[in-house]
User: Fold these one by one.
Assistant:
Number 1:
Amino acid sequence: MLNPEASNKLRSIVGAAYYREDMEALVAHSYDGTPMLQSLPDGVVYPASTEEVSKIMAVLAEYGIPLVSRGSGSNLSGGTVPLQGGVVMVMHRMNRILEVDLENLTATVQPGIITAEFIAHVESLGLFYPPDPSSMRISTIGGNIAECSGGLRGLKYGTTKDYVIGLEAVLAGGEVIRTGGKLMKDVAGYDLTKLLVGSEGTLAVITEATLKLIPPPKTKKTMLAMYKDLYGAARTVSRIIESRIIPATLELLDNPTIRVVDDFAKLGLPHDMEAILLIEQDGDPEAVERDIAVIADICRSEAADRTEIAATPEEALKLLTARRSAFTALARLRPTTILEDATVPRSKIADMVMEINRIARKHNVTICTFGHAGDGNLHPTATTDARDQDEVHRVEEAFAEIFEAAIRLGGTITGEHGVGTVKAPYLEWKVGEAGIDMMKGVKAAFDPHGLLNPGKVFAKSARKRVVLQHG
Ligand SMILES: Cc1cc2nc3c(=O)[nH]c(=O)nc-3n(C[C@H](O)[C@H](O)[C@H](O)COP(=O)(O)OP(=O)(O)OC[C@H]3O[C@@H](n4cnc5c(N)ncnc54)[C@H](O)[C@@H]3O)c2cc1C
């Protein structure tokens, strides 16, 4: 329970309706998109302006109360679970598009705007904001920035970090800082904008963002390549990149994912294929035709059973939407779905797919794989049941080995979902002890009393590395 004096001060900043301590509000903000993780906050606050955020932060600093910033709570790493109680700050009331600057091709937004609404708005003005996490209909731009989210278009266009050029943020004591701006070039001091992108709410609260917009591609074409051999599909990914073609989208779905996505979206996908690649290229019409022809040749040379090109933009959109629903569709299989995002260099995608399958067999667990294969970013997804402790333990062991395998192949423990709580024990595997110390130094400079999203990113102790099993 919060100090009543602090509660009263928070209530007087935002108004009684926007500071809540009732059980309904506390339970609703005790969990996020991550399974098997829950912890109650002491209060939930809904600010409407930077000024309110600043005043709230000053009160929290005065009373030493932890703060968890929250967009839509769709993250998959336990990033918004208030592990140490305190206050959850929900950013949904700060959801305005403040400006679209057509001369500079930038947009300035508040953090609570829903990603898909922002994308639709800039598209209505003939502009393009590429970062498109599959969760974009529910996620906020603030959450995307704090996680540095990626999406289906990440391969060609990059991820959120490539589009954030300026930020307004409130520091732990309530001070407001501005970084970057409507600038394509800016090397004035350390790049605090890039530091805050992906900082998972542990360094500051983002209250405004200036985003780069680009002209939309003139045309696009979407194709499916279907394989009886998963390894052939994975190898195709590396071969396309090697051929110096960068498709806009290059996604892989394995057989179990194809089946559930098809049952869910009713697309008529073949259930007897081991893998499907969903490939989209965009740009000038001639270049798109040429690239798609080369890609189709590569697919055939890697023994694709067949390739199909979407006949209409509506059909293409249906395929992309179906891919975006993969997680939701898999979640229908068993009571608990654990989605991970191990990432490897693109040349290692086939090796990683084989490793995931070998590890799943070894631990006798079901792991379906899909993901942004062109980015080397796979989403091995375990379908399990939280009530079966033995199976959950085997799933956890399997994921530890999957992360180990990703690192051994030159990859990382997370490509886009962030470290949060669930990956914290593995971070040292990726960045080493000195890396952790350096990151803790940055954290201490921003948040000397450890009030911002405590318990995230840094684990009390690193997980012991499992012994590697090759073959
Ligand atoms: C079905 C599904 C599909 C998904 N697909 C993708 C995908 O394709 N790509 C991808 O990258 N992710 C994906 N995700 C994960 C998730 O949607 C993203 O991480 C998303 O960016 C989170 O946005 P959010 O608004 O829900 O943020 P939240 O979950 O509320 O917060 C995420 C993190 O950001 C911090 N935060 C939020 N707002 C602020 C702020 N204003 N200032 C400072 N910190 C803040 C929080 O403290 C937390 O650490 C998916 C999730 C689901 C459930």
Note: The longest helix spans residues 389-408.
Number 2:
Amino acid sequence: MKAKSAILTNRPEMHRSGRTGWLRAAVLGSDDAIVSTASLMIGVAAASASKQAVLVAGVAGLVAGAMSMAVGEYVSVSSQRDAEQADIGLERHELDSEPQAELQELAMIYVKRGLEEELAMKVAEQLSAHDRLGAHMRDELGLDQASLARPLQAAWISAASFACFAMVPIAALLAAPVALRIPLIAACSLVSLTILGAFGGHLGGAPLGPAALRVTVGGTLAMAVTALIGRILGVSVG
Ligand SMILES: [Zn+2]
């Protein structure tokens, strides 16, 4: 009975961490979008460029960032998928060539998790009869069919979230009077960063304050540095 409850509590926990991992990646991509697009636009604006030039810089930053997120995610998730597929292929081969040894191996995993040997063997046999490869994937390799790496999905989700949040500083520029464009872009971006930082901390189970403060301070620094460089270049080149 004790062993049975161990299995029941184990599974939902794995699921939860898988899902937050995904969301956290999306939140990090969104931080990136706001910081890089806002910094780019503030840098150009600080060189006293026209509204149109700042807008073009923002839109170009949005497109470039979304594309590079998509490519980066696709490459990294593809290599994760290759590793998973290689593991599954090896497991499939072992199941075909040494079915008895694999059954023993599966039962041993359940013994290590706290089942009695006899019960562990029974569990291994019944799970194998139901879905042999699935049982080995889940309990031996720690792979869940539902959470296998999906490169294309990862690519479009991160590109879409980057594009969405890059719209924050662009919208601020469009709404702001010329004299206030830099402070307004910075303020809207920092407020969004603070909210996203707190949300990211919430997902990771961390305290909200420090998580929000980290991204906000980081974002402020990034914008200040690009504003300064834009200013210097605007004065020396223009
Ligand atoms: Zn196996």
Note: The radius of gyration is 25 Å.
